[in-house]
Amino acid sequence: MKHTLMMAAVSAVMAMGCGTDQMEGQESTALEPSTTVQGLVKEKTHCVVQALSVKHGEALPTGIAAPPASCFDTFAEAISHATKGAVKLNSHVTAQDLKEMNLGAAGIAAVEYDFPNLLGATLTLNASYTCAESDLYVASLPTVWDNRISSAISYDPSCKSFNHYTEPNFLGGYVNCGSACNLGPADNLTSSIYMRYF
Ligand SMILES: [Ca+2]
Description:
This protein is an alpha+beta fold. It has helices at 2-16, 75-82, 95-99, and strands spanning 46-50, 52-54, 70-72, 108-115, 119-126, 135-138, 151-154, 161-167, 171-176, 180-182, 192-196.
């Protein structure tokens, strides 16, 4: 929540065309979905987290602590980190471009976005397996990404389910995001994610 407020404040300052930070901390609900994150240099806004895996049919573990997130200034840096340098993106790449790049094969299961329509800050889900091999999960999102996801896209077509739960450890309500979605009723509520082969 703190992060979102900061972005609102910076956006407001940029819109005013002044460089002061007197808007810092002022609450705003006027964020447009298209609000750019470019120019936000105070906080690294593109994060990568490792999704864990569980064999098909095995029970999900409980009580898993939130994994650490590695965060970067740009999406390209995050993707480079997530793919161990195998995928280099230019700064104009879009979610659709990524869809055509077979990112799943490069170890990227999905990308979560702060805003609807695959816009804004990102959380990339790294995975060592595909859903065809093992189900994937993040049992508890890193604090900076808890209750923040507004849209998401899967890059692993072998995941038939892409469930976003409103509580950690796959509790509460959930939305199956399919191949891509806006979270809609679960907007800014996701606390755990489960990508399943079935
Ligand atoms: Ca959001």
